[in-house]
């Protein structure tokens, strides 16, 4: 496996094609990525869009993606990495892809001098929770999340 971090100068058309043609299911909540949306995302400061590919020559295959961003606390200048999404292709689950992506994100957090990494997972996502627990987190919280849909 190999990780690739995308920036505005990369071939976004290819990654979009790879994402839109990969094997996702409803749990991934991946709905028609577009080049313009990814370009807008990548233009924001501190974002990290990481993909994981098989490392097999010319036939490399997308295995998973993640989106995260480096944030700064407003009171002590500490940086932290917020992991928004880790999505593993349906046909690649239970093969180490999620762990590989997490390891790369933790490495990136260290390289950016982040003091901590934060991510959440739905309580019913047992596979993700087993993975995150297996990576020896410093804290596991019971958090209730709220979302508000804004009518425009």
From TrEMBL:
N-acetyltransferase domain ranges (all copies): 1-152
Xref: InterPro entries: Acyl_CoA_acyltransferase, GNAT_dom
Lineage: superkingdom: Bacteria
Keywords: Transferase
Entry's Gene Ontology molecular function annotations: acyltransferase activity, transferring groups other than amino-acyl groups
Record-given protein name: Acetyltransferase (GNAT) family protein
């Amino acid at each position: 496996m190999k990780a690739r971090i995308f920036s505005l100068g990369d071939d976004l058309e290819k990654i979009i094609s790879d994402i839109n043609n990969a094997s996702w299911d409803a749990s991934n909540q991946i709905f028609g990525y577009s080049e313009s949306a990814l370009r807008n995302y990548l233009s924001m400061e501190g974002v990290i869009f990481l993909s994981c590919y098989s490392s097999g020559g010319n036939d490399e295959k997308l295995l998973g993606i993640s989106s995260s961003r480096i944030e700064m606390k407003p009171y002590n200048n500490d940086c932290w990495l917020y992991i928004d999404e880790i999505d593993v292709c349906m046909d690649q689950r239970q093969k180490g892809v999620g762990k590989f992506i997490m390891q790369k994100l933790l490495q990136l957090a260290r390289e950016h001098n982040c003091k901590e990494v934060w991510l959440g997972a739905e309580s019913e996502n047992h596979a993700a929770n087993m993975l995150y627990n297996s990576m020896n987190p410093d804290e596991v919280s019971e958090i209730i999340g709220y979302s508000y849909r804004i009518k425009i």
